[in-house]
């Protein structure tokens, strides 16, 4: 019974779900590395191997222990690699081979081994789970410090027409890092679009770390890294619904946010972002939360 | 040449050294789990296996893929298990089998699978690396906020007669969690002993997370987890040298602390604690530090 589980047990369950690729029973031991120009940029699940083998001019599949799927070296630059993948994804989309491609976003993500590396190609966002490509985003914890030292946090509710997690709770502002935009630049753009926060305020947001996790679902493998910023707002500032991604905003005491994190109302990675805030701001007590170490480690699994 | 490396490259080197057990070339693939009462509480390096096999009444060594070293189930309670290990360690100490036991501390650490689990036995602190047993500590970042928004951090220098890392830089206060004491309780005790910080001030320290890492050296395998607290001090408070573990204290701007982290003056895990502070307080910028994600992940490797 969910009701009988402690707060920490419920949060550990969430962290395990968000790290399902690292757990026993995942496809991890059977996956092949996805390699571009000698660099490991993703993972390919076994179900994709027969399909990829049909494109020997693009994918070179090798077997055995060090088995991998390598993008052909004859595709010798960013544009050639991006075009080759784009064409194949277009075919799969027309043939309706994968449900995920039905959610085609017309938004490109950079593909590289580490965030600090030059991009090797760009790939349609809805397809990255098929190649286990890492994606990055930026999340903003908006908070207000009250006179008595207590804090409240701004929480958004996603509209019902969001493709993922409609109606769920979200951080004040969040967005994926598309090819070509910086982290702070994306933050400022999303603050304006999603919550009508002017640049003069958004630019005061402070970077405070990252969370990282890898989950696997019926659509693929998703290693994700989020850059976390804290944005302190004055008590009289009220974010406004902007581009229709958010239904409304709530200003809630941290105790309430803490309870909600362990429930099912939050979009899961947004619950992790809010939990990171609670930990950093001393709301969780190591002497009372006996799983404190696991809670922190679960927010920072290597991608 | 060290001088030609960037700040981030030097810090990543530090993180890799502190996670050496997870790196290629470590003894990790050859180690056996150390199991007590069915729970994995540590790891045993191959060099120890022949020796442990000489005590079949205490250690049951099994071979093969799932090979492990299990503490005999006939040792059925905390006291029996602690006594059996203590006796063997005493023999090894007399026979001068291991250098680490020459540094006998007469301080006991609890042995358990996770910090939240009940302790299964206690073990002399200087021996835990032989069994790859996890140990925990608490570290305090002492800082001062100046009128202009800038911050400085209190840094201690270890005395020359410390057994480990004499003369190196340290956090304001740090200490291991010995069997039977809570985290905050240990913090308050160490604040008083090491830096003459009265309880009324020490108790305002706020928990802000953890760091975790596992290194391997000639003495053994060391999975360590540190609870991190931030203690804001007023500009007029000056910590005083207490029990002689610290030579002197310095109040340094965060920019200076940042530079020192990438050098060799800091005790390595204290550099990690200070870096966690810099990250949480927005001193590192994701758009400038391209390895930002790796820096954060390197502070939080699963033990």
Query: What's the CATH architecture name of the largest domain in chain A?
Result: Alpha-Beta Complex
Q: How would you classify the helix and strand content of chain A by structural class?
A: alpha+beta
Bin the helical content of chain A: 25-40%
State the end-to-end distance of chain A: 32 Å
Number of separate helices of chain A: 8
- The 3D shape of chain A can be described as globular
Low-pLDDT segments of chain A: none
Number of strands of chain A: 13
Indicate the topology.
Two copies of one chain form a homodimer.
Chain A: H1 7-18, E1 32-36, E2 39-44, H2 49-52, E3 59-62, E4 68-71, H3 78-94, E5 108-111, E6 121-124, E7 135-145, E8 151-158, E9 169-171, E10 173-176, H4 183-195, H5 199-202, E11 206-217, E12 220-232, E13 246-253, H6 254-261, H7 268-280, H8 292-298
Parallel strand pairs in A: 1-4, 7-12
Antiparallel strand pairs in A: 1-2, 3-4, 5-6, 7-8, 7-10, 8-9, 8-13, 11-12
Structure described in brief:
With 303 residues, chain A is an alpha+beta fold. Chain A has helices at 7-18, 49-52, 78-94, 183-195, 199-202, 254-261, 268-280, 292-298; strands at residues 32-36, 39-44, 59-62, 68-71, 108-111, 121-124, 135-145, 151-158, 169-171, 173-176, 206-217, 220-232, 246-253.
Task: Write a structural description.
The structure is a homodimer. Chain A has about 300 residues and is α+β, with helices and mostly antiparallel strands. Chain A folds into two domains: about 1-20 and about 135-300, Nucleoside Triphosphate Pyrophosphohydrolase (Alpha-Beta Complex); about 30-130, 2-Layer Sandwich (Transcription Regulator spoIIAA). The first copy, chain A, has eight helices and 13 strands. In chain A, strands 7, 8, 9, 10, 11, 12 and 13 form a seven-stranded mixed beta sheet that branches. In chain A, a hairpin with a 5-residue loop joins strand 7 and strand 8 (about 150-160). In chain A, helix 1 packs parallel to helix 8 and helix 6 (about 255-260) packs across helix 7 (about 270-280). Chain A starts with 6 loop residues before the first helix and ends in a 5-residue tail after the last helix. The interface of A and B includes residues 230, 287, 294, 299 and 300 of A.
